[in-house]
Amino acid sequence: MAYIINDDCIACGTCIDECPTASITEGEIYVISPETCIDCGACADVCPTGVIAPAE
Ligand code: SF4
Ligand code: SF4
User: Fold this and answer.
1) pLDDT level of residue 1 (50, 70, 90 thresholds)
2) How much is the average pLDDT of 25-45?
3) Which of 4, 25, 27, 50 has the most CB atoms in a 10 Å sphere around its CB?
4) Ligand 2 site, residue 29, Cβ cutoff 6 A
5) Ligand 1 centroid from CA 12, angstroms
6) Parent domain of 50
7) Whose CA is nearest to atom 2 of ligand 1?
8) Tell me, what's the pLDDT at 56?
């Protein structure tokens, strides 16, 4: 399981420094690597647009 960033990401960059496993990659829309995400939720807590959520 991993957290997922949806298409409404505004690429603000707030989440990337919060990830303890460096699982977030920047881009037009930021992306979380499911191989290394440990489901800690730190990124979701700081995202101003609420576009990060646990995978179903
Ligand atoms: S849930 Fe935690 S490990 Fe996964 S991308 Fe967010 S901050 Fe990184
Ligand atoms: S904090 Fe939220 S809106 Fe900002 S880059 Fe990360 S996922 Fe996108």
Assistant:
1) confident
2) 98
3) 4
4) no
5) 16
6) 1-56
7) 40
8) 77
Ligand nearest to the CA of 55: 1
Signed CA dihedral, 10, 12, 16, 19: sign only: negative
Instruction: Tell me the CA–centroid distance for residue 23 and ligand 1, in Å.
Output: 6
**Residues 52 and 8 sit within 8 Å (Cβ to Cβ):** no
| Average pLDDT of the segment spanning 30-43 | 98
Q: What is the CATH number of the domain that holds 14?
A: 3.30.70.20
* CA 37 remoteness from chain centre: 9
Domain count for the chain: 1
What are 56's two structure tokens? 């179903």
41 lines ligand 1 (CB under 6 A): yes
Strand ranges for 1-56 from DSSP E = 3-5, 24-25, 31-32, 52-54
